[in-house]
Write a structure and sequence with these properties.
Largest sheet: 4 strands, antiparallel
Structural class: alpha+beta
Number of helices: 6
Distance between the termini: 47 Å
Number of strands: 7
Order of helices and strands: HHHHEEEEHHEEE
Strand content: 15-25%
Length: 183
Amino acid sequence: MRQCWTDPAAVEAEIARIRLLGIDALRRRWRAVFGRTPPAGLSKDLLGRMIAFRLQERAFGGLDRESLSLLDGFARHTVSPRRRLKPGTVLVRDYQGQRHTVTVTPDGFDWQGTTYASLSAIARAITGTAWSGPRFFALARPNGTSSARDHNKKSVRVGHAGSQPATGSNHASLLPLQTASHA
């Protein structure tokens, strides 16, 4: 049952028909579309969504290689999500008794009135040694797999009203990121 549409209206109409099908009809449709029996645990909604995605994929094309590779990495738990910080986000880190505040800008990261291309450049300027910027600002664990929220350390959220210390452990010199976005 390999139908090819290029008309978006035809694809939309077919998806509307799929939404009206019962679970048994969706399972039959799944077999026709995917060439195998659907997994037993899939709900009616998920069956319909996956069939609709396949129809759209056939009509308009699939994902590019980079997206497929990224999704494969997520499935295999080998890729950590890419963090995208919005302009206006404020990062705070106490280092050797001094508080450092970095603001994300559209062009990079502002620290002490200077814009840097990366957090690592700022971490290097603060410490005098090579640091991973995301690790220094507690955006990732040492192995790079998770955010600071997984750490049991003291953190600060900075917003329009100033900062609010959160309760934490005895790691007073490290204030992992709790972001506040000003969008």
